[in-house]
Structure formats: C-alpha cells, structure tokens
Task: inverse folding
C-alpha cells in the first residue's frame, strides 16, 4: 500500500472511521481485562484526518503507566486491519470517573474491584484534577465488592496499580482493589 491516504475520498474515510470504531470498541483495559476502554471513558473519539485516523484517548490520570500499553494496543489493532492511524492523547478535559459507564462499574464489581463513587462534592468541577495531595483526606466509605459490607479499611493507598487503592473487608476478610475516583 502506498501513502494515498490524503487522496482518499471522504466516504472512504468515514468507512475507515466506522471500521476503526468497531475494532477499538473491543479493546479492553490492559489492567482490567473485563472492561473496554470505551466503557471506561478512556477511548474518546476516532476521527479522520488528512494523514490517517486519529484515535483520541484520555488517560485515567496523567502519568498512568498503562497508557503506553493502550497506545501500543491501539496501533497494533489498526495495523493488523490495514488501517493507518495514530493515537492522540487528549488531557483536557481531564478524565473523570463519571465517564465510566454503569455497565463498566457493574463489571468492575463482578471482577472484585470496588468501582469509584461519584464525586461527592460536585461544584468544584475541574478543580478535582489528579491530586496526590489527597492522601491526608478523610477516608471514604467503600463497599466490599464481595459481600457489600461498608466495614472496610484501606491497607495501601496504591494497590496493584496507582489508579487503585488496596482495601480489606473486615466482614469477610477479603482484600480488594478500589478504583479511586477522580
Ligand atoms: Zn466483604
């Protein structure tokens, strides 16, 4: 194939966009294989540009190590299907756990990860962007995904990944990950 992308007609381009959407919607999170990037709200857009497709992703928080893997996955998938494209990382508006679909939250729970709570203090809006300074904040009440008990305790602020905190349920004694809200 030669680089004739810029000569492609607009109908060809929109066919590529729908093809790419159909493929990319299947991509799952590298760390949580039960939910797709689309359901998590990480995959934002697929659009045609003069130089090929642009796949817009927004990281769950800046510096999330999974983003490199996600970019590789997107590129590999597009290439495997003969699509030309590149990943565009969009940082604004910042990702929020509100973008996560209800279906994704159900799947997280079924997978043993407590889904994020909706941000309790709305009104501050964009001010709640990624802050590690929140460490000293009051502990949240997190329901155990196994038994639903609220009698849980945070054992590590950074769990299996920096996006999650490690909790333990004091009712059923099971440890679990809590996907921290942003
Ligand atoms: Zn429990």
Result:
């Amino acid at each position: 194939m030669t680089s004739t992308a810029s000569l492609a007609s607009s109908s060809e381009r929109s066919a590529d966009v729908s093809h790419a959407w159909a493929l990319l919607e299947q991509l799952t999170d590298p760390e949580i294989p039960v939910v797709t990037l689309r359901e998590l709200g990480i995959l934002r857009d697929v659009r045609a540009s003069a130089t090929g497709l642009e796949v817009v992703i927004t990281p769950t928080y800046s510096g999330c190590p999974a983003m490199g893997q996600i970019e590789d996955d997107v590129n590999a998938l597009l290439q495997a299907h003969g699509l030309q494209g590149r990943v565009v990382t969009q940082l604004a508006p910042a990702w929020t756990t509100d973008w996560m679909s209800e279906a994704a939250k159900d799947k997280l729970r079924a997978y043993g990860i407590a889904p994020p709570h909706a941000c309790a203090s709305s009104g501050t809006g964009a001010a709640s962007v990624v802050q590690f300074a929140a460490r000293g904040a009051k502990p949240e009440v997190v329901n155990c995904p196994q038994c639903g008990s609220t009698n849980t305790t945070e054992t590590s602020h950074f769990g299996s990944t920096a996006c999650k905190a490690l909790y333990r349920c004091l009712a059923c004694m099971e440890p679990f990950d809590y996907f921290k809200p942003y």
In short: Confidence is low (pLDDT under 50) at residues 1-6, 119-136. The chain has two domains: 4-89, 112-179. Residues 4-89 form a domain with the GMP Synthetase; Chain A, domain 3 fold (CATH 3.30.300.130).
